[in-house]
Amino acid sequence: MKKAEQLVANIKSMYLPRNRYANFGDVLLAMEVHGIRGMSASIAFDFPVTVITGKNGSGKSTLAQLALCCYRYKQPGESLHNIRNYYNLGNFFIKSNLDPEPYTPDAFLQYSYATAPEKRGFEQISLFALDSNSFCHAKENIIKKINSDWGGYKKRPDRKCIYFGMGFFVPHHEMGDRIYLDPKTCISGKRSFSETSLKISAEILGSPYSAVEVATIINQSKEAEMGFASRFGARYSENHMGCGEGRLIRMIDAIENAPERSLIVIEEPETALHQDAQHNLAIYFLEVCKRKCHQIIVTTHSPTIVDAMPMEARKKVERTSRGTTVENNPTIAEIISDLSDGHQKSLLIYVEDEFSKKLLIEIIRKFAPELSKALSIAAVGDKGDVLQAVRYTQKHKGVKSIGIRDEKHTANATELIFSYPSDKAPEQEVFCNQVVSEFLSAQYNINFSDVLATVTDHHEYADRISQQCDVDAATIEVQCIQTYILHQDVSKFLPLISEIKSQC
After folding, report:
1. Least confident of 71-85, 151-165, 419-433, 440-454
2. Which member of 144, 164, 243, 352 lies 3.0 to 4.6 Å from 108 by CB, making a disulfide possible if both were Cys?
3. pTM for the whole thing?
């Protein structure tokens, strides 16, 4: 079993309802938001690592930032809460002359989180109570507008929350802050990265570090932190780091030093990282989730990060004039299709001929339209050509591909060769269908029985019909396929569609 698969299996076991609170504490289970930044939507956190994807403006950041507002936090040894140590809605949803109405008068944030059975307080709810093994105690809280203020803050549970927004790390030379650039700035103290943080940073970036330090720097009355890295015999500060490198090592340092069971919210962690580093970072999120029982919520446009996550971790947000929806368990094909609007294909499918290609297009259009923009379909010849094309593409091009042959008995799943659900040739399956025969009779006054009596090669059915009705063969094929598909049940093609989705 691959490392990622083993991590996911372990985390799923830890996150079972009966184990959830014992492992992850007051973990956030679900949220419902209404009237904040124009959003009304619900989201469930079905896995302790959640990746939220969607187009710009869909509401990913709104959901992630609201999660931070579900908790407050006291520093160890403190008896009172200090607002500097946690987030309120006002940290993100700012009302001003520029934005006088970031929320509606009836706005609210309602959420549930896991709790111990013996805890007392406001009313507990029980989720997943189908049997004793799927039982999770939970509490609900609601933060809502009360006149000009928000009510419900004091009922929030205690939990450390860390937010890595887009402004978390900006290269210091771009900030223009004197303390980072002034020659008179000096170092007053420093601490070294732990061996764990050092190793993780090096593994993610694929570049070895001999040392990483975080120094306290001082310039007159100002004080700040500055990172230093050593590798390949050179030592350099964050002033000479790229955005991706500087952001990553600071983020790893903060996550590793966070208390166990923290809530970590990260916006666009793929920023300025190459794809291999994005994949490695996603695996790190799984690993640190298991090791430190953190709950991690990520907003991302990176298919690489999403693809490393189990289906339960994936959420796709879509915002239209009808409102905001959160789709659970989207396939990587759906995500690529949505984010690229069809410009980037996630799976290449080889079929035998053009008729088979037209049939597959209509099956997808009717029964799995979410895949339409994610697939590229190519006709290559006969069933032997389909197999050779898949083998060559997988081996030499590094492109995900499968084959779909015409007849059921020719499928070979081990070679990623699937088939239509009939042992008839697709042309015979379509044109010999009673509903299609009736369509040809009504539309073109053609008796298909007469065609069958004179044409022995099923590849020539459309040509013969075309000659009789003076309509081009390609149009005849599409019309007959659409008529055929219109009267088929999804169950007939569901196994094929499932195989396609599993490969996306």
Report:
1. 71-85
2. 144
3. 0.74
Q: Please name the residue that has the structure tokens 């990176």.
A: 302
Inter-axis angle of helices 461-469 and 434-444, to 10 degrees? 20
Between CA 421 and CA 409 the distance in angstroms is 9
Max CA distance (Å), the chain: 98
Neighbours of 131 (CB within 10 A): 9
| 393, 348 contact by CB (below 8 A) | yes
CA-angle at 69, arms to 68 and 72, nearest 5°: 95
Query: pLDDT for 108-166, tens place per residue?
Result: 999 999 998 765 544 445 454 434 445 788 999 999 988 778 999 999 999 999 999 98
Sole residue written with tokens 């004091």: 154
* Axis-axis angle for helices 275-292, 195-205 (nearest 10): 150
- Give the C-alpha separation, 23 to 107, whole Å: 33
Strand ranges, E, within 37-185: 39-44, 49-54, 103-114, 124-127, 136-146, 149-151, 161-164
What is the average pLDDT across 208-222? 89
* Separation between Cα atoms, residue 283 and residue 3, nearest integer Å: 8
Task: Specify the pLDDT at position 342.
Answer: 65
Q: Are 377 and 360 in contact (CB under 8 A)?
A: yes
Residue 33 in 3-state DSSP? strand
What confidence tens digit (pLDDT) does each residue in 323-348 have?
999 999 887 767 877 787 767 777 89
Cα dihedral: 384, 385, 386, 392 (round 10): 110
Give the pLDDT confidence score for residue 131 in this predicted structure.
43
Q: DSSP letters along 348-380, please?
A: EEEESSHHHHHHHHHHHHHH-GGGGGGEEEEE-
Instruction: Report how far residue 362's alpha carbon sits from residue 356's, in angstroms, rounded to the nearest whole number.
Output: 10
- In terms of Cβ atoms closer than 10 Å to its own Cβ (0-12, 13-18, 19+), residue 55 is middle
* Average pLDDT over every residue of 78-93: 89
Residue 221 DSSP class: T
Residues with Cβ within 8 Å of 252's Cβ and at least 6 positions away in sequence, in order, are 197, 200, 201, 204, 284
Quick one: which H or E segment has residue 328?
strand 323-328
Of 171, 191, 189, 190, which Cα lies nearest the Cα of 181? 171
Residue 174: alpha-carbon gap to chain centroid: 31
Q: CA–CA distance from 30 to each of 48, 111, 341, 410, 485 (Å)? A: 12, 6, 29, 46, 39
Strand ranges for 382-440 from DSSP E: 401-405, 417-419
